């Protein structure tokens, strides 16, 4: 049973990373990166490394996502520049 859960988690990590790379919207990419980080934290927990999982969830999904969202918020979108 754990093998199936681990395989689904790994497929989710790979899928979210691939979709993140193909996305043209920066905010969608940041959300997918956060999802990938949470899935990676789940994978670490499955591999019996709860301390690494907590660190990944806190730093990877929490702090890094907040920094990325702030950076995306500070940028100007190219759609808005055409209207000016």
Provide structural commentary.
The chain is elongated. The model has no long low-confidence stretch (mean pLDDT 91). It has 4 helices and no strands. With 84 residues, it is mostly helical.
Write the layout of secondary structure elements.
Blueprint (H helix, E strand, L loop, with lengths): L1 H21 L3 H21 L3 H25 L3 H6 L1
List keywords for this structure.
84 residues; mainly alpha; 4 helices; 0% strand
Q: Tell me the number of structural domains.
A: 1
Q: What is the straight-line distance between the termini?
A: 57 Å
Which residue ranges are poorly predicted, with pLDDT under 50 across at least 5 consecutive positions? Answer: none
What composes the largest sheet?
Answer: none
Radius of gyration: 16 Å
pLDDT average, as an integer?
Answer: 91
The succession of helices and strands, N to C, reads: HHHH
Helix segment count?
A: 4
Proportion in β-strands: under 5%
- Residue share in helix: over 70%
Q: Quick one: how many beta strands?
A: 0
- The backbone outline, from C-alpha atoms, is elongated
Structural class: mainly alpha
